[in-house]
Amino acid sequence: MTISCRVFPLLCLAFLAVADITLIATARAQSALAAQVAKPVSLPDISIGSPKAAVTITEYASMSCPHCAAWGENVFPMLRSRYIDTGKVRFVFREFPLDIKAAGASMLARCIARGDAEKYLAVIATMYQQLDPLINRTKETLILIGKLNGMSEQEVTTCETDQSLLDKLKADQQFAFDTLKVDSTPTFFVNGQRLKGAMSFEELEAVIKPMLKR
């Protein structure tokens, strides 16, 4: 049924008012969620791109997640070249390990990178390429990746048994689960808008472009 605004002007105004209120409420909720996502967590954020970028994308990923690996290999390079490296998007990577193998991989990446975001992202790119052996021969694969990055077997073992690092990883995951409602990987937050699943570049770009025009 189509309502004529000439015949029912007050009714049309009421519909418009409700629509405006809904939009305002949605915007406020998204802004509040963006503030929660931006809160400092236990571990330093792995971030690249301009801090002044109009759009911030935060990804929660697990190192044992095939969908995360596929997104990292196929979509992230395009996102980086077109939006991150051009200063339009800031990208933040956060761990959400779905199992102990993913937790161990994340811990090793942290130990290798020592706070260097570029190095961290390079390490997880290697891990994604080695996903099958990482899952099936976890200890041997982590030792190999550690050695490729200048670590001895003992240093890898020391990293993997760092209880403080593991506790921080768990605390950040619990915050993401309880407060941000992350329960699967990959999960993205684009300026506070929660998006689940490994989106294509085109799907992600459709979300980003309108935000760049605001």
Description:
With 214 residues, the chain is α+β, with helices and mostly antiparallel strands. The chain has a single domain (40-212), classed as Glutaredoxin, CATH 3.40.30.10. The chain is 60% helix and 12% strand. The chain is built from ten helices and five strands; from the N terminus they run αββααβααααααββα. The protein has helices at residues 9-38, 66-74, 76-84, 100-113, 117-129, 131-136, 138-148, 153-160, 163-178, 201-212; strands at 46-48, 55-61, 89-95, 187-190, 193-196. A five-stranded mixed sheet has the order 1-3-2-4-5, with helices on both faces. A hairpin with a 2-residue loop joins strand 4 (187-190) and strand 5. Helix 4 packs antiparallel against helix 5 (117-129) and helix 7 (138-148) crosses helix 8 (153-160). The longest helix has 30 residues, at 9-38. The two termini are 34 Å apart. 31% of the residues are buried.
What is the N-to-C order of secondary-structure elements (H for helix, E for strand)?
Answer: HEEHHEHHHHHHEEH
Give the distance, in angstroms, between the N- and C-terminal Cα atoms. Answer: 34 Å
Largest sheet: 5 strands, mixed
CATH architecture: 3-Layer(aba) Sandwich
Per CATH, the class reads Alpha Beta
Q: How many β strands by DSSP?
A: 5
